Amino acid sequence: MNADKTSLGRHIKYWVEYIFLRLLSGILSILPRSQALNLGRKIGWLVHKLLYKRAGIARKNLRESFPGISDEKIHNIIQGCWENLGAGVGEFVQMPGMSAKDLEGCTTCDGLEYIQKSYAKGKGTLLVTAHYGAWELGFKFWPWKKIKTAAIARRVKNPLVDDWATKIRTADGVKVIVSRNGVREAIRWLKEGNQLAVLIDHRVTEGGLQVPFFGRPASTTSLPGILALRYKIPVHLFRCWREGNKVRFQIYPAMDFSDLPQNEAGIEQATLRMSRVVEEWVRERPQDWLWIHNRWKMPAAEAVAK
What we know:
This protein is of the alpha/beta class. Helices cover 53% and strands 16% of the residues.
C-alpha cells in the first residue's frame, strides 16, 4: 500500500512539474527573443528562492573553490547562475522555431574552421563542452553548419519532461545518446564520420576518473580521453556564453595528445588537460557555470573506500 501511495505521489508530482513547464514554455515561446530571455532571468532568480537546498550547494561549492571569497561575491555569482539558467530556459523553448537566419542573427562564432577541417577528414570529431553559458543553443548550431552531431545526455528523472526536452533537442537533427550504456552507440556514430558532443563537467556516478577540478577530486567521464587516445578522434573544446542577448561560440583547435601513452595514465592525463580548460572558463566567467550541481560529491564506492 505504501509503495502504491509513493508511486501515485511521484506520478502526480511529475504531471504538476510537466504542466507548469509547458505553461511557462508556452508563454516564453511566443515572446520576442529579448523579452523571453529577460523574463527567463527574472523567473530563474525567483525559482532559486524555492530551491534553497540548491543555493546551499552553490554557496558551499563557491567557498571551497574560491577560498576567502566574500559573501557579496557569492551572492552575485549565484544570482548570475540562476539568471543564466532562466535565460537558457527562455532560449531553449524558442529553439524549435528558430531559423538559420535567426541563429545567425543572435550568434557569433570563432574558430569554426578548426572543426570543419577535422570533420572533412571523415573520421569523426569529438566536441568537448560543459554546462556553461548557452550550452543548449550550442548544440543547435551544428545541423545548420551541415555537421551531423549527436550529444550524450542523461535522462531527466521526470519522464514527461525528459520526452519533451528530447523532442526540442532533436527538432533540428541533433541526435541524443543516453549516457547510460551509450558508449557503443557513441563509438559507432563516430566511426560513421559524425561529430559527438560530450559535457565533461557532469559528475559521473560510476566508473569515473578522480580528476582535480578547482584543486579537489571530481568524478569525471573518461570517454573523451579514451576516444582521443585509443580511437584517434580529434578533440575540440567548445564553449558558448551570452553577451547580453547575443551568444558567442568559441571553438578551439584540435588538442594535441601525441605525447601521451595509450593507457590508463594517458587517458587520465588527457582528461585532466580538458578539465583544466573548463576550469579556466569558469574562473573567467563564474556566473555562467552550474554551481548548483553537486560536482564534487563522491560516488558511493569512493566515499566508502575513504
